[in-house]
UniProtKB/TrEMBL annotation:
CDD domains: Thr-synth_1. Transmembrane segments: none annotated. Residues 36-319 form the Tryptophan synthase beta chain-like PALP domain. NCBIfam families: thrC. Pfam families: PALP. The modification N6-(pyridoxal phosphate)lysine is found at residue 73. GO terms for biological process: isoleucine biosynthetic process; L-serine catabolic process; L-threonine catabolic process; threonine biosynthetic process. Its EC number is 4.2.3.1. It comes from uncultured Solirubrobacteraceae bacterium. Its cofactor is pyridoxal 5'-phosphate. The keyword Metal-binding does not apply. Keywords: Amino-acid biosynthesis, Lyase, Pyridoxal phosphate, Threonine biosynthesis. This is Threonine synthase.
Length: 351
């Protein structure tokens, strides 16, 4: 195993390999490429007993928040940044609702590249902003929404030798398809996949990954009601939802998402913010799994629409709950104040 040139290159034996090494046969890379990895992928797949009971079928959770920066974006980003580095780019850029920025910043830091991110001003979760800043990205707060940010970075990269690492970049999808391959490795088959849909890169990537290993589960995509262009059949000019990671009104992978849906006999449906937050709290309180609001859209959709005929369903939990501490605090109980005396502690604990 090679982690690129350099005197400290690791040669095997250090934990699980990153996904480029693990899936080298399925990816457009060579072991001799300057691979930029944080040992992403190989995320947990856990049985959700309480949700299985509620749905009446076996439901598994793919915990993508266990990736190095806390979201599935790392799968795509290790590939996009490796490709950028191989092509000699010095700078990467993306528009982001937060997680792409955090991931791009981390992988750019790892690969010794500069990174700039355009995020909608005031609309990204605190954890994601902290990550992008800590990893040394230039964070540009656009007075506009994600769709405008993506439009602008696409224009910018036409005129400058800067690598665009949004999911319009094909290497992003290549990396993200490996999550589908992990599911098939572990389960053999599954009947349906529930997944939140924003820019629609991830649903496109999963469908590609399943296809490459000869599987075709129903693709059940879920959008937030206030940001549901694929459900409505037209762009949403001012998308709004508590699930900031999927607050997108004009998905870049629109056509691909729709064909994944039709080819798999799946569906793309909307869930309300209330349904998203119900699933978000339920997952944390009854499954012990803390994901971010956008991720809970997959479970919210499954609870709302069911998965007809499916015996085994996987829900993708795209990002970690710690990404968005503010929503968590607003959605949970308050702390119990207490004086430092045994009686008071007793009352507080037992009360
Ligand atoms: C990016 C993201 C999504 C949406 O993925 P798309 O590829 O844009 O459809 C969902 N959840 C989280 C946590 C994300 O970061």
């Amino acid at each position: 195993m090679s982690h690129g040139a350099g005197p400290f290159a690791i040669r095997g034996g250090h934990g699980h390999p990153g996904l480029i090494h693990r899936f080298l046969d399925h990816l457009p890379f060579e072991a001799t490429d300057p691979i930029v990895s944080l040992q992403e992928g190989s995320t947990p797949l856990v049985l959700a007993e309480r949700i299985s009971e509620r749905v009446g079928t076996e439901v598994l959770l793919k915990i993508e928040g266990a990736n190095p920066t806390g979201s599935f974006k790392d799968r795509g980003m290790c590939c996009a940044v490796t490709a950028a580095k191989r092509e000699g780019a010095e700078t990467v850029i993306c528009a982001s609702t937060g997680n792409t920025a955090a991931s791009a910043a981390a992988y750019a830091a790892r690969g010794g590249l500069r990174c700039a991110v355009l995020v909608p001003d005031g609309k990204i979760a605190a954890g994601k902003l902290a990550q992008a800043l800590m990893h040394g990205a230039r964070v540009i707060a656009l007075r506009g929404n994600f769709d405008e940010a993506l439009e602008l970075v696409r224009e910018l990269t036409k005129a400058h030798p800067i690598a665009l690492v949004n999911s319009v970049n094909r290497y992003r999808l290549e990396g993200q398809k490996t999550a589908a391959m992990e599911l098939v490795e572990e389960l053999g088959t599954l009947d349906a996949l529930c997944i939140p849909v924003g820019n629609a890169g991830n649903i496109t990537a999963y469908w590609k990954g399943f296809g490459e290993v000869g599987q075709a589960p129903r693709m059940l995509g879920f959008q937030a009601e206030g940001a549901a262009p694929l459900v409505l059949g037209h762009r949403v000019e001012a998308p709004e939802t508590v699930a900031s990671a999927i607050r997108i009104g004009n998905p870049a992978r629109w056509e691909e998402a729709m064909s994944a849906m039709t080819q798999s006999a799946g569906a793309i449906e909307a869930v309300t913010d209330e349904e998203i937050l119900d699933a978000y709290r339920f997952l944390a309180a009854h499954e012990g799994v803390f994901c971010e609001p956008a991720s809970a859209a997959s479970v919210a959709g499954l609870l709302k629409y069911g998965a007809p005929d499916a015996r085994r369903v996987a829900c993708v939990l795209t990002g970690h709950g710690l990404k968005d501490p503010q929503t968590a605090m607003e959605q949970s109980g308050s702390v119990v104040p207490c004086e430092p005396q045994l009686a008071a502690v007793e009352a507080a604990v037992l009360g």
